[in-house]
Write a structure and sequence with these properties.
GO terms for molecular function: ATP binding; ATP hydrolysis activity. InterPro entries: CobQ/CobB/MinD/ParA_Nub-bd_dom, MinD_FleN, P-loop_NTPase, ParA/MinD_ATPase. It is a single chain. It is built from 14 helices and 8 strands. It is of the alpha/beta class and 295 residues long. The protein has an 8-stranded mixed β-sheet, sandwiched between helices. A hairpin with a 5-residue loop joins β3 and β4.
C-alpha cells in the first residue's frame, strides 16, 4: 500500500520556489481509450516524441499505473518510477528520464497491483504533485490506462484536452462511447479529440469517426467531438515496436510516422491554458501564478 509520505500529496504539496518569473502554464493532453489493444500507448509515445522534435518542451507521463510500458516502447531503463514516488523514496524530479528527441518521461511500474488500486484521493494527489515540478515545459502528454476506472477519469479531467483512440472494431467503438459518456456525465469533460488508429486508409478513419459521432450526437448532446486524424497500420510501426524505438524517430518517412507527425503539428498549435477551470487540474499553480502576473 502507498506510504505515509505519499499520503501527504493527497492534501498538500510543496509550492514552487521563489523565482524572478513564474514558470509558464503547460498544455496537458490525456490520451486514452475505451478498451485495451487500440494502440493508445504507441500514439501517446510517438506524439510526445514528435512534439519534442518540433521544439516543444514535452513531458510524457505514463499514467497506466498498473501495467506501464512507455519505458519499454521507448527503449528506456528507468532507475525510479512513480511507484518509488508513491512509496516516498524519491521526488517527482528524480523519476524523470530523457527519451528520444529530448522528450522527458515520467515512467510508471508494471505489475504493481497497489499502483492499480490507488484511492481516488491518491489520484488527485498525483495530479497535484506536478505543481512542484521545476521544469520549463510547453506540453505534457498523459498516457492513461484503458477503461473507466477512477484513475483514467481523474487524469482525463485534470488535462485540458482528452484524446480518445479508437480502431475499427465494434467493441472499440462501443467502449469508446461508454468512456466518453462517463467522462461527460461524471467529470464534466465534454470536448473530445478522436484519433482513428490502425486504419487501412484515410477514408476508413473518417468513417470510423463518423460512426462514433452519430452515436454521441444521438445520446450525448452536450459532447463535442473533433477528428484529430488517423494513423495507418504499417509494417514500419510494427518493426519500431519490436526494436523499442518510436516510429517517428526510427522511420520518419513511413506512413504511420507521417500521420502521427501531422497530428503532432495540430496539437502543437493548441494554446496553453490561461484560466483555471475549477476542480482537479495538472500544473494548477502555474496557471494561477501566470494569471496573477498578467493581472
Amino acid at each position: 500500500m502507498p506510504s505515509r509520505e505519499y499520503a501527504k500529496l493527497t492534501t498538500t504539496f510543496p509550492l514552487t520556489a521563489t523565482r524572478s518569473e513564474p514558470l509558464g502554464p503547460v498544455r496537458t493532453i490525456a490520451v486514452t481509450g475505451g478498451k485495451g489493444g487500440v494502440g493508445k500507448t504507441n500514439v501517446s509515445a510517438n506524439l510526445a516524441v514528435a512534439l519534442a522534435g518540433m521544439g516543444k518542451r514535452t513531458l510524457l507521463l505514463d499514467a497506466d499505473l498498473g501495467l506501464a510500458n512507455i519505458d519499454v516502447i521507448l527503449g528506456l531503463s528507468p532507475t525510479n518510477t512513480l511507484a518509488d514516488l508513491v512509496a516516498g523514496r524519491c521526488s517527482l524530479d528524480d523519476v524523470i528520464i530523457e527519451g528520444p528527441n529530448g522528450v522527458l518521461v515520467v515512467p510508471a511500474a508494471s505489475g504493481r497491483r497497489h499502483m492499480a488500486e490507488l484511492a481516488p484521493a491518491e489520484h488527485v494527489g498525483l495530479v497535484n504533485v506536478f505543481s512542484e515540478l521545476e521544469r520549463e515545459l510547453d506540453i505534457m502528454v498523459v498516457d492513461t490506462a484503458a477503461g473507466i476506472t477512477d484513475g483514467v477519469l481523474t487524469f482525463c479531467q485534470a488535462a485540458q484536452d482528452t484524446v480518445v483512440v479508437v480502431c475499427d472494431e465494434p467493441a472499440s467503438i462501443t467502449d469508446a462511447y461508454a468512456l466518453i459518456k462517463v467522462l461527460s456525465r461524471e467529470r464534466g469533460v465534454d470536448r473530445i479529440q478522436v484519433v482513428a488508429n490502425m486504419v487501412r486508409d484515410p477514408n476508413e478513419g473518417r468513417v470510423l469517426y463518423e460512426k462514433l459521432t452519430r452515436v454521441c450526437e444521438k445520446f450525448l448532446a452536450d459532447v463535442s467531438l473533433n477528428y484529430l486524424g488517423c494513423v495507418p497500420q504499417d509494417d514500419w510501426l510494427r518493426l519500431s515496436v519490436q526494436r523499442q524505438q518510436p516510429v517517428v524517430k526510427a522511420y520518419p518517412s513511413s506512413p504511420s510516422a507521417l500521420a502521427i507527425t501531422e497530428i503532432a503539428r495540430r496539437t502543437a498549435r493548441w494554446q496553453a491554458p490561461t484560466e483555471p477551470r475549477g476542480g482537479v487540474e495538472f500544473f494548477l499553480e502555474r496557471i494561477i501564478k501566470q494569471r496573477g502576473v498578467a493581472a
